[in-house]
């Protein structure tokens, strides 16, 4: 039988070439911390709503935190046949804690799981990038202030155009980086919502609490 998660009606294994082409684990494994964070929130929500037991939710959280520690230490083997970070973690969780691990996928799809991971990852990366850009802008500002007296040839159409002071040239980059900062702030604002609960397309029949998950 096919080894893939979606291989239900296939009687033979997929070709290795297809597995390699279809797998995203080589690059989406960087989402592991976000994936586990979202899964823990989802498990807590399922328990709160009475969809799974509190004991199962506790087992899931404990198992996920152990997997998080193993991945962080480099003690985790990612499997290409499991395609992505989501199925690698879920399969390992079920292997470690049994049926409770399989219940984690109740009332969600890989679709909303992927979207949630991406939202979390982008938000966290922006919070890392923002102070770095601010430091860079301050460095450019210091460079401009410390070299006020330098006369600099401004260029247009690859030709000398006007004599300017060097700070005028340096501050052009300052405002470029400032626009980058504004774009990141815009992206952060519009990434700051939780897609968990959207399911495969338009929700789930389970009575979940999306606000609690968020």
Fill in the keyword field for this structure.
mainly alpha; 9 helices; 2 strands; 6% strand
Describe the protein's architecture and organization.
The chain is mainly alpha-helical and 214 residues long. Helix content is 61%, strand content 6%. It has helices spanning 16-22, 25-28, 32-48, 54-72, 85-97, 99-102, 110-146, 166-191, 210-213; strands at residues 151-156, 159-165. Strands 1-2 form a two-stranded antiparallel ribbon. A hairpin with a 2-residue loop joins strand 1 (151-156) and strand 2 (159-165). Helix 3 (32-48) packs across helix 7 and helix 7 (110-146) runs antiparallel to helix 8 (166-191). The longest helix is centred in the middle third of the chain and has 37 residues, at 110-146. It is elongated. The model has no long low-confidence stretch (mean pLDDT 91).
> Proportion of β residues?
5-15%
What is the succession of H and E elements? HHHHHHHEEHH
Number of helices: 9
- The average pLDDT score comes to 91
| Gap from first CA to last CA | 38 Å
Strand arrangement, major sheet: 1-2
Could you give the count of β-strands?
2
Q: Quick one: biggest sheet?
A: 2 strands, antiparallel
Helical proportion, percent range: 55-70%
- Going by helix content, strand content and strand pairing, the class is mainly alpha
**What does the overall shape look like?**
elongated
Low-confidence region ranges: none
The Rg value, from CA coordinates, equals 24 Å
């Amino acid at each position: 039988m096919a080894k893939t998660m979606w291989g239900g009606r296939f009687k033979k294994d997929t070709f290795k070439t297809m597995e390699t082409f279809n797998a995203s684990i080589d690059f989406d494994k960087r989402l592991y911390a976000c994936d586990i964070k979202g899964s823990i929130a989802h498990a807590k929500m399922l328990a709160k709503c009475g969809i799974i037991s509190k004991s199962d939710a506790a087992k899931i959280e404990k198992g996920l935190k152990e997997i998080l520690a193993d991945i962080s230490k480099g003690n985790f083997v990612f499997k290409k046949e499991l395609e992505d970070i989501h199925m690698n973690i879920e399969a390992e969780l079920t292997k470690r804690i049994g049926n409770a691990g399989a219940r984690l996928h109740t009332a969600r799809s890989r679709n909303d799981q992927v979207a949630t991971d991406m939202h979390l990852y982008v938000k966290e990366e922006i919070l890392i990038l923002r102070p770095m850009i601010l430091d860079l802008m301050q460095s450019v500002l210091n460079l401009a202030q410390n070299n006020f007296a330098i006369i600099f040839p401004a260029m247009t159409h690859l030709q000398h155009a006007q004599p300017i002071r060097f700070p005028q040239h340096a501050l052009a980059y300052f405002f470029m980086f400032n626009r980058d900062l504004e774009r990141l702030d815009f992206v952060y604002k519009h990434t700051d919502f939780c897609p968990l609960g959207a399911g495969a397309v338009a929700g789930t029949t389970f009575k979940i609490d999306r606000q609690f998950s968020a």
